[in-house]
Input
Amino acid sequence: MFQNFKMVSRLVFGRGCFNQLDDIIQKKRTKNRSFMIFVTDDVFKDTDLAARIPLKSGDLMLWVNVDNEPTTMLVDMLTEKIQSFSESLAAGVIGIGGGSTMDIAKAISLMLTNPGSATDYQGWDLIKNPAVWHVGIPTLAGTGAEVSRTTVLVGPDKKLGLNSDYTVFDQIVLDPELIADVPIDQRFYTGMDCYIHCVESLNGTYLNTFSKSYGEKAMELCREVFLNDDPEGDDKLMMASYFGGMSIAYSQVGICHALSYGLSFVLGIHHGVGNCIVFDQLEEFYPEGVREFREMMAKNDIRLPASLRKVSDAEMKKMVDVALVLEPLWENALGKEWRLMMTRERIEVLYGLILGQ
Ligand code: NAD
Ligand code: ZN
Output
């Protein structure tokens, strides 16, 4: 069966296009569904951007802190807060921030129309009902969360997305001006998420011409951004994220992502930097990609965190468990017989390398 790919329905792109948001959401307000929920990264509190958010009376602003990656518990809590704010359904949910904030917005839009806890829907195609209309506005570029069919959440026993066609944003607003002030390290780590998406997609067994076309273009853009001082870097990075996301949407990511999920579940390390720490140790699997990644690190004067804390045997077991749940990622990387190549013991050896222990 070929995947019948659900894409973002509408998109605006361009410097300053954030100003069009009011006009876009106004059309979605109806008599019965009149209010909007804004889910905004609290890094923007009291900033010029906050003042430009078209919040109207009756709307709800939820400032979210993403120092820790989003959890199913946070999503449940925010959903309950919205439900006690109004008995009627919101006209829309608008996420303004990086991958974490966009994922929280996606998850809320799903949980407003699907009963139970977000934990119940961690997996593939478990969501039953369409989401509330939802909009993604990235303020960091690289994750591809703006185009993906998942919202990655940390649950009580796994880090796994709510993967479904309903998860995909109905509208995205890609304004390169919004990523202008991202700190240099964060810009690099999130940008490398995109670069690694491309490496894993282009070297995977699921590769096809659709994914290859997007992946190659995204990679070319990453090179222009991180190996040349491109004056249009912000515009290009935003498009790289979009294209990288499109590439993996019709293929898959691979070993780096599988291991990075385990690392972030146990040690709480953020996705972007976690990917970089893991990828740096994967020369055996992605030799050219790792060489170029190191070139990009040197060019951008990035130093990865020196050492990670020691993990106990129980934590190591948990990391391996979390990584192994991600079967499609391993299959994409190593083929249908991946279990013969990637045993628990081998994953432990890889984690040992990554942790330097
Ligand atoms: P993030 O959203 O976790 O944010 C990282 C840091 O940057 C935070 O401190 C945030 O406050 C800050 N920040 C955001 N925008 C800023 C700006 N314009 N200026 C200054 N600071 C800013 O980072 P991310 O790398 O974009 O996202 C990582 C998250 O995305 C993880 O939770 C990961 O699981 C998820 N993810 C989701 C998908 C998907 O398809 N849904 C794909 C990859 C990653
Ligand atoms: Zn990623």
Notes: Residues 184-202 form the longest helix (19 residues). The CA atoms of residues 60 and 82 lie 8 Å apart. The domain at 184-355 is CATH 1.20.1090.10 (Dehydroquinate synthase-like, alpha domain). DSSP finds 14 helices and nine strands in the chain.
